[in-house]
Amino acid sequence: METYHVPVLYGESLDLLQIQPRGTYVDLTFGGGGHSRGILERLGPEGSLYAFDQDRDARINIPDDSRFTFVESNFRFMRGQLRALGITQVDGVLADLGVSSHHFDTEQRGFSFRFDAPLDMRMNQRAAFSARELVNEYDHDRLTQVLGDWGEIETPYKVANCIERARMSAPLETIAQLIEAVKPCTPKKEETKFLSKLFQALRIEVNHEMEALKMALEQSLRVLRPGGRLVVISYHSLEDRLVKNFLRSGRFDGVVEKDFFGRVVTPFEVVTRKAICPSEEELARNSRSRSARLRAAEKRAEQ
């Protein structure tokens, strides 16, 4: 399990869930199963856990436990999948939004620029759309928007120009070809940082990650019981901003509504006033946790 993915902020996230022995919980990002196993350890014999993952590779980590149900699905469909299983309310939802070590370290999946492999980046390998289609079929304006919005690249139009010029002679099929295509606009002293942003942008677009996150957050609010907790670990500013705003106000723009008397109207009571970051000990043990930010909130009683 730990070779597949080392769970980040493990103890902190489980503590914030406030797991009740007879409760019903959801792990939206099963992956290596680390957080799920921790939840199961704290559940009693009458508790239950539903874990989501759209990647079939994750099935190798399914625990042999009657309290556990694996749902092979994108977490954007959480509410519908739970209803199909007869579950309408839960006591807690956990989401670790990071890409697993398994994806970064399996070169044929195409998530890392450390390897040369086909341009892929699909979390769900049954999906038809991959990074190959993205870099070869998106027009200049759409490429520029993706690179700017999801990668926060400073001059996305220049990178889009490089990709367009390269694909005119032949389609870009591999990671090495993409890296070569963008070399003219790659800062020599910040190559790793630049490529990280580029690959983040492509991965988010291929997997519709921001749209899926919004849907999952909204559905979490609907399925949580009053007093239930939503715990989210994010890894870049785009995710963290969405999570922070939603937990603060129940809206993605972060605007807090007030009633006639000026009282704040929000569906959550924020538990983490500031994001929790990994300790020095965890950073030494797992360097990939360095960008993790943990936030949690408790659903208020119905107004």
Describe the protein in words.
This protein is an alpha/beta fold. It folds into 2 domains: 183 residues, Vaccinia Virus protein VP39 (Rossmann fold), CATH 3.40.50.150; 96 residues, Orthogonal Bundle (DNA polymerase, domain 1). Helix content is 40%, strand content 15%. It has 12 helices and 9 strands. Strands 3-2-1-4-5-9-8 form a 7-stranded mixed sheet, sandwiched between helices. A two-stranded antiparallel ribbon has the order 6-7. A hairpin with a 5-residue loop joins strand 6 and strand 7. The longest helix has 17 residues. The protein starts with 9 loop residues before the first helix and ends with a strand.
Helix content: 25-40%
> Major sheet: size, sense and barrel closure?
7 strands, mixed
What is the domain tally? 2
Count the E strands.
9
Which spans have pLDDT < 50 for at least 5 consecutive residues?
none
Second rung of CATH, namely the architecture of the largest domain: 3-Layer(aba) Sandwich
**What is the helix/strand order?**
HEHEEHEHHHHHHHEHEEEHE
Shape by Cα distribution: globular
Q: Report the β-strand fraction as a percent range.
A: 5-15%
The largest sheet has its strands arranged as: 3-2-1-4-5-9-8
Q: Average pLDDT, to the nearest integer? A: 93
What is the level 1 CATH name of the largest domain? Alpha Beta
The value of Rg in angstroms is 20 Å
Q: What name does the CATH topology of the largest domain carry?
A: Rossmann fold
- Structure class: alpha/beta
| Number of contiguous helices | 12
Measured distance between first and last alpha carbons: 42 Å
CATH homologous superfamily classification of the largest domain: Vaccinia Virus protein VP39
